[in-house]
Amino acid sequence: MQTRALETLVRILQVQSFSEAAQLQNMTLSALSMQMKALEAELDAELFDRSFRPPRLTPLGRQVAEQAKGVISAVDALHDLSTAGAGLSGAFKLGFIQSASARILPKFVTLAGEREPRATFRYRSNLSEVLTEQVVQGQLDAAIVTRVEGAAQGLHADLIASEPMGLAVPVGRSHMRVEHLSQDMPFIHFRPSTGIGKLIAASLGAGVSPKNTLVLDSIEACMECVKEGVGYTVLPLPDIRRYADARVHVVEDALEGLTRDLVMLTRDDSQAQRWRPRLLSLVRSAA
């Protein structure tokens, strides 16, 4: 019996869709259908109810898929014994939030090519909440996101860096205290629904509320507004430093104790345990 067929069966159980499972398994829909028919013939069991379109797992099919998880884990353990220390191999799908894609991804690509020649990587960039859900659904193997308490339940999170939050102010207002700034000019708020945005919102809740707020969905756009004297903003210090110029006054200790934790999220299963340490090492080196 081919474990590949069992992996496909488990994937169908996870996503409840033949077409999505085929995409995630890098197969055509017809190839997946033939593979499942062959598995049914080998087991002499009806795993799918084909009176539905698309077919649905039968109760027996669901039970076999659950049992297959243990078989796959046992096979993975055997591979671990025989390939320990061999490095990463295979095709990995990684997600990066905007700030991480700008600061970490270029170095990661270089290091991955040097250290892990047997692995290939595909990348996508999005918001923390979107990338987190894509890891949950198996659409990404790992994602570099801002840690938000309670947002990654059921996933494994490894700390990459803990970055202090800072204040970026137009240089012409560098003499003003935060409480005066908040009444004098708009606060440039990076999208509140994001990981960084939620941290910023929490910091505002503990201090003086701005009189006016301008919400933007780009860190670069926030910093450009500060440069033009439109308003002031709160962002992770590495991002402020990346975009700041002579028109920006940076206050590093204005939000003492407030940090953004950048973490790598992966599924908490036996397959991820095999490659997680080496991938994490690469990401930390790039950061």
Walkthrough of the structure:
With 287 residues, the chain is an alpha/beta fold. It is 48% helix and 23% strand. It is built from twelve helices and eleven strands. The strands form two sheets. Strands 3, 4, 5, 6, 7, 8, 9, 10 and 11 form a nine-stranded mixed sheet that branches. It has a two-stranded antiparallel sheet with strand order 1-2. This is LysR family transcriptional regulator.
Overview in brief:
This protein has 287 residues and is α/β, with parallel strands linked by helices. 48% of the residues lie in helices and 23% in strands.
Q: Layout of helices and strands, plus pairs?
A:
Elements: H1 3-15, H2 18-24, H3 29-43, E1 48-49, E2 56-57, H4 59-83, E3 90-96, H5 98-103, H6 105-115, E4 119-125, H7 128-136, E5 142-146, E6 155-170, H8 178-184, E7 187-190, H9 195-205, E8 213-216, H10 219-227, E9 232-236, H11 237-243, E10 248-251, E11 259-267, H12 270-286
Parallel strand pairs: 3-4, 3-5, 7-8, 7-9
Antiparallel strand pairs: 1-2, 5-11, 6-9, 6-10, 6-11
Helix pairs in contact: 1-2, 1-3, 1-4, 2-3, 6-12
Domain HTH lysR-type: 1-58
Keywords: DNA-binding, Transcription, Transcription regulation
GO cellular component, one term: cytosol
